[in-house]
Amino acid sequence: MDWLDLLAVQGTLESLLQHHISKASILRRSAFFTVQLSYPYITTGKTIALTRRTFVSKVMSHYFQISTH
Question: Which one-letter DSSP state was computed for residue 2?
Fold first, then answer.
């Protein structure tokens, strides 16, 4: 999964939440974030996997939070 796939996921989630336009904009803004990692962790190549996992967790958390309101 690369950044284009992540953007596709974001677009799909926005389509599913069309009736929550104002809340969908919050999701879009907060879905991307900065992960600060130590240099040894970065050199192991695990950065991308951690970023993907955290991204998906964040998006799903917002999706469920929005869908329950």
Answer: -
Q: Do 36 and 54 touch, CB atoms closer than 8 A?
A: no
Single-letter amino acid, residue 54: T
How open is the CA angle 29-34-35, to the nearest 5 degrees? 140
Q: How many domains does the chain have?
A: 1
For the chain, counts of helices (H) and of strands (E): 4, 0
Domain span holding position 41: 3-67
pLDDT in tens, 10-59: 777 776 666 555 655 555 555 554 445 555 555 555 555 556 666 777 77
Q: Is the pTM of this model over 0.70?
A: no
Give ∠ CA 52-26-15 in degrees, rounded to 5. Answer: 75
